[in-house]
Amino acid sequence: MNLPLLLNIATFVVILIALGRVNASWSLAKRVLLGMMLGILFGLALHLIYGDDSATLKLSISWFGIVGGGYIQLLQMIVMPLVLVSVLNSVARLNSTASLGKISVLTIGTLLLTTLISALVGVFVTHLFGLTAQGLVQGAKETARLTAIQDNYVGKVADLSVPQLVQSFIPKNPFAELTGAKPTSIIGVVIFAAFQGVAALNLLKDDAVKASAC
């Protein structure tokens, strides 16, 4: 490591420590805004000092990425367990399994409606401003991301018929679904959690003592 790189990393660490010591009375929105502003200012300063093609700047960014990439990976780590626990807890708190059908219809209907609205807005804006993909520059990261999506998701789903796609939603190994092994793993986790919640409701109805112990 050269001295400029060490100085960049040290400055970055100091900024992180300063953000961590921000008054806890500040709202989350204020702290996020402060972090964003400090990040923009720090990035502009590095850009002005080193320029676009500096090897030191590129190496510094790779070190900074440990924090950003690590944060994203930590979020990804808790997504599946969070979905499982949230759905299981929600279903188990219902008064009866009959309520589950109403909530499911309402939830799915709301999801489809919001998806339809967002799609219509996208189509409307595209036609209104005449937006096209011409002139877009595809960098190495975008190309790698597209390749990963095609290899990991599109290839596994494109050849499935509608019945096969629906069947793929049904989990056969809940532990494998929790690892995100399939493109439809999140749906499998939701279905598994819903069944667990219904089982808890039925157990509560049949034997309240055992249900409370569980």
TrEMBL record:
The keyword Membrane applies. It comes from the Bacteria. InterPro entries: Na-dicarboxylate_symporter (IPR001991), Na:dicarbo_symporter_sf (IPR036458). Pfam families: SDF. Keywords: Membrane, Transmembrane, Transmembrane helix, Transport. It is found in: Membrane. GO terms for cellular component: plasma membrane. Belongs to the dicarboxylate/amino acid:cation symporter (DAACS) (TC 2.A.23) family. This is Na+/dicarboxylate symporter. It comes from Ralstonia pickettii OR214.
